[in-house]
Every structure is written in C-alpha cells, then in structure tokens.
Amino acid sequence: MTALESCTLSQTRRSLSALAYFLRRLLRFESAWVLHIARFEDKVTLGLALGFSGQMLDFVALRQRELGSAADGEWVTRSGRTLATFDAQADTVALTGIAAFVVGANRELGQTVAWLRTCIDPLYDQPTLWALDCVTRLLEEKSAMLATRGWHGGHCDCRLLTDDHAPAALRQQDRCPPLLDQPRRPQELQLGDAETPGPAVLVQSEAGQRQLVHYIYSEIEVAAAETCARNIAEFGDGMPLQFVLDMARQCADEARHAVMAEQMLAHYGGWLGEFNYRNRIWNAYIKGESLAERLAIEQVIGEGNGLDMSAHCMDLFKQHGLDRLLRYYEFLQADEIGHCAFGNRWIRYLVDGDEQRFTDVVASAARKTGSGVPGYAPVCVETRRAAGFSEQFIAQQLLKGAAGETASRAGLPGP
Ligand SMILES: [Fe+2]
Ligand SMILES: [Fe+2]
Fold first, then answer.
1. Which InterPro entries does UniProt cross-reference here (predicted)?
2. Residues near 189 by Cβ (< 8 Å), separated by ≥ 6?
C-alpha cells in the first residue's frame, strides 16, 4: 500500500476515536460487572482484565492528543453497531455472559487493530503504528490471562470501523449494567463480627499469619478493587480521562494483590472462608455521598492509614524473621503509595485545590465511617509525603491527631 492509498489524517483520527469509544465503554461495563461476580477468582480475573483495557486506552488517547483531537469526551465517535452491541449487553449480569463478552470483545478489538495496522502509512504516521503495536501486545497478554484463568469462547461483532461514525460523547444515559450497592460474595465466605487481632498478635503463630493473609485477601484487596471499579462505573464519565485510567490501574493492582494474597494463603495452608469477614472496606466506602468522600474514605483515610500500618507490620516481620511476608508487603506498599496519591490528586481536583475544603472532605468522610485520621499505627511521615499528603495536612491532621484517641484503634487497616 502506498502513502496515497493509506489512511488520511482524518481517517486515522476517526479510527482512533472509534477505538477509544469502544475501550471507554468496555471499561465502564467491566467495572460495573466486577460487583456482579461472586466468586473471587472470577472477580479478580475481571479486575485484571480491566487494567489491560485502561492501558490500551492510554496508548490510543495519547496518540489522539498528538494528532490534535479535541479534549476528553468530545472526541469520541462510534459506529452504530458498536452502540447497539453495548446497549444489548447492558442487561447481562451472569458470569457466563460477562466472560463471553469480555473474551469476544478482546478478539474483536484484535482483529480490528490488525486490519487498521495495514492501513496506516509507516512513514507519514509511524507513531500511530507504535501505539497500535502497544495495543496489540496488551490484547495478546489480556487474551492469554483470560484463557489461563479459565475464561474462553465468546462472540462480539461490533464492526468497529466499518460502519458510519457519528460524533458522540459518552453520556450518562448510555446503557450500562446496573450498579450494585452491595457487591456479590462467594458462599464460602461468612460474615461475622469478631475483630481480627492486631498484627503484633498475629505474627506470633502460623495460624495468626494465616489469619493476617486471609484478612488481606477477603477484607481488603478484593473490596479495594471493587471501590475503584464502582468509581469508574458511577463517576468516570463526568471526570477527566486520566481519572478513569488511574482507577483502572488501581483496580488491576488490587486484583493482582488479591492473587498474591490467594497464593500466600495457599502457602500457609489456609483457604478462603477459614475465617469470617466483616466487609468493612466496602461498607465504609459506600457511606460516601460524593466522589470526593468516596476517595477520602478509601484512598486517603483507609489506604493512608494502611501505609502507616504496613510500615509497622514490616518492622514486626523483620523482628520475627518473616522474610516471605516482608517481601510481599514491600511490593504491596510500593503500589499503595501510588493509590493514596490517586486519592490526594483527585480530591484536590474536585475541591479546586483548596486545602481547607480538602481537610473538610476528609473530616466529613472520617465522621461518617467512624475512622481515625491517622489510624492506630505510628504515622510514617516519609511514606505519607511520597503519597502526596501536603505538609500542612501532615502537620495539622496527622501528627497533631497521632497523640489523641483514634476510632480505628481496634481495627487492622491494611494494604
Ligand atoms: Fe492493595
Ligand atoms: Fe490499594
């Protein structure tokens, strides 16, 4: 194909726009569906899948910006068939239907991108080829991950690029699977109200170490992934694209942490359901009445206090020679700093950078959930700084509050 026969600039823009629409809509569906799946292994599969969708969208959106497309939400075009395909899937809530669509959509995207690559001029538009190469690699990895975790089959015929394209921003009224206020849970996991002992007690015995990892898996990581998914599904379309990408990244991180916890639990001879759980992370999150409050509850208070607790736990692991748990926590902590930073960044965006309004949102979120700011563990200032907490917040809210009584004293905030 010669340069004259390849895509024109406007055709490339339109094609990238159609890919972006497909990926954004797919992300919203995958996010809503995370809450509908009960079995943890499948819920985690979707959390991991959603991370691939976000990474692909990142590459496509970057190339769109380079080619001078307009700002978020205005540059999205879609084919009539794509719109109809997603609208028809909005009633799907059963695992088999979800898995079939996610696998099928990945295959459809793969075929579309492979075809589009042949239309791009390798000299005039080489960076679009680079972007599509990155997308292709991610599609292949996503496909392999889905197959490895038992998600097969599926069919999706969107004709992404072959239909008429109409300019269309994503709209709240576009159909989406229903949002659940209580995510589904596996039968083997039983609700209970017993407090989990603190880490200083748990590290003393193998049974305690097993309970610690069970707590992280059942109470923290899966629920954290769910909060990010819900943020995308409920608030994503009214926020900048980067917010959606950040939440997709965090959801995938939490899903990966859940896999790490699942493997660690197996190493200790434990199993999901060996201990009760309280669903504290989700129940706290859903008390937030705005996106800012939800981010304050999960990313800033929950994960912020978790940074201090994790530093405390790592000291305990060192004292007890628990090298396996130490290595595990070091990787968790590296990711959690980024998650806290997401919360700090996007609350600041929502309060126009006003420090007092930021503090007010956090205080309101703490009141609604009965949480302490900071929590039980000594404040780890260095980590708090790395996570984007302001010097003012550290001095006036964290260090000042550290001497006082805190509401989450009995709890075990975590990664
Ligand atoms: Fe995590
Ligand atoms: Fe996290």
1. DUF455 (IPR007402), Ferritin-like_SF (IPR009078)
2. 218, 272, 273, 277
Torsions phi, psi of 75, nearest 5? -95, 5
Q: Which ligand is nearest to the CA of 220?
A: 1
Please tell me the distance between residue 311's alpha carbon and the centre of ligand 2 in angstroms: 14
Ligand nearest to the CA of 246: 2
Contacts of 146-152 with CB under 8 Å at 24 or more apart are: 146/45, 146/49, 146/99, 146/102, 146/103, 146/106, 149/41, 149/42, 149/45, 149/48, 150/45, 151/42, 151/45, 151/99, 151/102, 151/103, 152/99, 152/103
Take residue 217 and report the two structure tokens written for it: 């898996």
How many A from CA of 175 to the centre of ligand 1? Answer: 30
User: pLDDT per residue over 290-315, tens digit each?
Assistant: 999 999 999 999 999 999 999 999 99
pLDDT in tens, 247-284: 999 999 999 999 999 999 999 999 999 999 999 999 99
Q: State in Å: Cα 261 to ligand 1 middle.
A: 10
Residue 254 CA to ligand 1 centre (angstroms): 4
The whole-angstrom separation of Cα 127 and Cα 108 is 23
**What is the rounded CA–CA span in Å between residue 415 and residue 401?**
22
Q: Report which bound ligand comes closest to the CA of 305.
A: 2
Residue 251: per-residue pLDDT: 98
Q: Which token pair is 251? A: 């959801």
Q: Please give the domain boundaries of the chain with CATH numbers for all domains.
A: 9-161 (1.20.1260.10), 199-401 (1.20.1260.10)
- Residue linked to tokens 């823009």: 13
Distance 186 CA to ligand 2 centre (A): 22
Task: Tell me the residue type at 324.
Answer: R
Q: Rounded to the nearest whole angstrom, what is the distance from the C-alpha of residue 31 to the centroid of ligand 2?
A: 16
- Distance CA(10)–CA(13), nearest Å, equals 5
Residues 6+ apart with CB under 8 A from 314: 326, 329, 330, 333
For 167, the enclosing helix (H) or strand (E) is strand 165-167
Span from the CA of 415 to the centroid of ligand 2 (angstroms): 6
Distance 407 CA to ligand 1 centre (A): 22
